[in-house]
Structure formats: structure tokens, C-alpha cells
Amino acid sequence: MSSLLVVGADHLGNITDKLKNSGFKEIIHLDGRKVNMVKRQIPEHVDIVFVMTDYINHNLAKVIKQKAKDQHKPIYFVKRSWSSIQSVIQQMGEVR
User: What domain of life (predicted)?
Assistant: First the structure.
């Protein structure tokens, strides 16, 4: 795991540090507040996409999901809580 795109939430707080401690080298955060966020592309070097479901509108979630699918990138929908994120990271480790 090296690069992660997080979509949603205004601020990640200490989640960024915890993600780095979990093995992610680069964390890119898009808050999703601006209307033109649906036009942004997922960077090629991103390995995994996390969508914070409690801080994103339905249209942006749908667009990001389609873009991740088109680029064959795994996408996970999580709440903005470390326990939710950590359980997804553990599941990813079991799959690998």
C-alpha cells in the first residue's frame, strides 16, 4: 500500500497520521465540498480510494465510484471514524 485518495470530510484530523502508521506513504484528500469536484480525475499513482460516506453527496459518490471502476482501482466506503477505516484496512490485509 502506498498511495490513498480520501474523498469527503472537511478535515481528517489525526486519521492522516493513523493511515500513515498503517502503511500508506501518500494520502491525498479531497473534501468534496465544491461543485466542480465531480470533474476531477483520480490520479494514476493512487492505489486505493476511500469515500467518507457521512460527508459526501450522492452524485459525487456515484461519479467517484464509476471513475475508480474505470481505472480498476479498489474503492471502499467508510465512515469518518478510525474504527470503520481500521476494519476496512484489516479486511484488505486478509484479502492480500
Answer: Bacteria
